[in-house]
Amino acid sequence: xxxxxxxxxxxxxxxxxxxxxxxxxxxxxxxxxxxxxxxxxxxxxxxxxxxxxxxxxxxxxxxxxxxxxx
Length: 70
Known about the structure:
About 0% of the residues lie in helices and about 40% in strands. The protein is mostly beta strands.
């Protein structure tokens, strides 16, 4: 959480998230649990849980279920 005179900026990165190289995540964006953000993506809005997001601006392109290693 970063504070400034205009208020605070909060990014939330969920559990089990993979963020690839050269990704930009904008202010006040949440990346849901077990999601993947592809290389070079520009995440300007929330990324849903268990999704793969890619592009500029990033969009969820597919859903996926993480492998259970149990």
